Amino acid sequence: MDVLDIFQRLGLAAALGLLVGLQREHAGTRLAGIRTFPLVTLLGGLCALLGMTYGGWLVGAGLIAIGAILVAGNLMQRSETESEARDGAGITTEVAALVMYALGAYLIQGMMEVAVVVAGALAVLLQLKLQLHSFVKRIEAKDIKAVMQFVLISLVILPLLPDQTYGPYGVLNPRNIWWMVVLIVGVQLAGYVLYRLVGQGAGTLLGGVLGGLVSSTATTVAYARQAHGSPPAAPLAATVIMLASTVSLVRVMVVAALVAPMAVGAIGLPLGVMLAVLVVLSLAQFALVGRAPVQLPPTDNPAELKPALFFGGLYALVTIGIAAAQDWFGNSGLYVVAVISGLTDMDAVTLSSTRMLAQGQLAADITWRVILVAALANLVFKGGTAYVLGGKALGRRVLLLFGLALAGGLALLWLWPAPTAPATPVPSNPVQPIP
After folding, report:
1. CA 169 – CA 316 distance, rounded (Å)
2. Cα dist from 377 to 63, 334, 342, 373, whole Å
3. Fewer Cβ neighbours under 10 Å: the N or C end of the chain?
4. Radius of gyration (C-alpha) of the chain in whole angstroms
5. How far apart are CA 205 and CA 403, in angstroms?
6. How far apart are the C-alpha atoms of 151 and 357, rounded to whole Å?
7. What kind and span of H or E run contains 372?
């Protein structure tokens, strides 16, 4: 390590210390601020430099010295008035100082990019104190339960499942099946968290987006029931339902990209055209209604074990169905499975088909068509649901919007050019299960 490199690393340590110290000073802490944090970080760097010659014990000794200084600083604060001491309560600054000391030591021989990211993340974390505390206060017991259940699904159950194939056609791999469950539940949980953060004050646009992230079918049912017997509520309900259906296709495309990233171009372009049709229809309907407030309907915890097991079973059945249909009837049989599955759940057929694409068992041109057929079948199901549950006022609006979308999708299936060369499976690097 030459002199220039040493100065560069120490200078970066001081700069990162200034960044965190600036935040602590602005937050009103009296223990350590804009001058102390750069000194702490520089001390870590100097101890690491000395340790290269005299032994690594110097880094530990410096850490102990910093800890003793922080304890002494806290004791001095406690000698002040009770109210002032109460204002200075907490150990955030102390822990931040220890982190910056360790970061300064790491900078001497570690990667500077890592140190910059860690310091930046620390500064942001410290700055978001009020927002984080406000978020925690809004969390209910059911929200913590949702997170813990997702931990059970993803970090406890998944690693225990065998990673080998069973059953007919050799397509049932318990770990891969459950990994698909984790993927879908994770996406839905993210939507659920946004739903909980926004609360009941969402506007029309955000209400539709959240509905599509959580479940467009459940959103359709909820708003159809709200609009039943109330014709003035039909335009707003139709807008939210249309937006939710549009976002659900975005979610499907994201999931497909995660499972078969190397085939994004092959399946993303035609699905992107369908998405453009839905976006135009959604914006047209949104322009008619505007930014009216939306009362978000109650939503269930997406990380419940029972729905996860149900989706895992459905995914396994669809996977076998696709393999059997392709074996018995060729590609035409795949579309029958897509229609049946898409009536209630697009995720299962999307994951099954893209997984087979990633494993080289299905052509990309067939995969996007299967996904699109499932999406169109899902629109038909939701349109009928809106008409039956929401009444004629809502049903006519939704059927008109979905009818135009259905026409666009059928035209896309009919007119999209077939590959010039024989359709061959597109190999990919599928998402690997957690070992």
Report:
1. 12
2. 63, 13, 5, 6
3. C
4. 28
5. 21
6. 29
7. helix 364-390
Q: Note the pTM of the prediction, 2 decimals.
A: 0.61
Contacts for 95-98 with beta carbons within 8 Å, 24 or more apart? 96/20, 96/24, 96/32, 96/37, 96/122, 96/126, 97/31, 97/32, 97/36, 97/37, 97/40, 97/66, 97/70, 98/63, 98/66, 98/67, 98/70
Cα separation, 199 vs 192, in Å, equals: 11
Residue 433: predicted pLDDT: 41
The beta-carbon contacts of 361-365 under 8 Å, at least 24 apart in sequence, are: 361/323, 361/425, 362/322, 362/326, 362/425, 363/423, 363/424, 363/425, 363/426, 364/263, 364/266, 364/267, 364/423, 364/425, 364/426, 365/266, 365/418, 365/419, 365/423
Q: Which two tokens stand for residue 435?
A: 């070992």
Average pLDDT of the chain, as a whole number: 77
- Asked whether the beta carbons of 297 and 223 are under 8 A apart, the reply is yes
Rounded Cα gap, residues 354 and 363, in angstroms: 10
Of 282, 238, 231, 266, give the one whose Cα is nearest residue 358: 266
Contact, 93 vs 122, CB < 8 A? Answer: no
Coil, strand, or helix at residue 172?
strand
pLDDT for 207 equals 64
The predicted pLDDT at position 83 comes to: 45
Helix/strand/coil (H, E, C) string of 21-86? HHHHHHHCCCCCCCCHHHHHHHHHHHHHHHHHHHCCHHHHHHHHHHHHHHHHHHHHHHCCCHHHHH
With tokens 């602590």, the residue in question is: 24
Residue in the block written with tokens 């897509």: 338
Cα gap 326→324, rounded to integer Å: 5
Contact 207, 296 (CB under 8 A): yes
Is the model more confident about 25 or about 66? 66
H or E, element range at 10: helix 3-27
More confident residue, 156 or 24: 156
What is the arithmetic mean of pLDDT over 302-329? 77
CB atoms within 10 A of CB 61: 14
Three-state secondary structure readout of 386-405 = HHHHHCHHHHHHHHHHHHHH
Q: Which letter, b or e, does each residue of 303-314 get, where b requires 16 or more Cβ atoms within 10 Å of its Cβ?
A: bbeebbeebbeb
Residues in the chain: 435
The one-character DSSP state at 166 is B
Cα–Cα distance for residue pair 417/406, rounded to 1 Å = 19
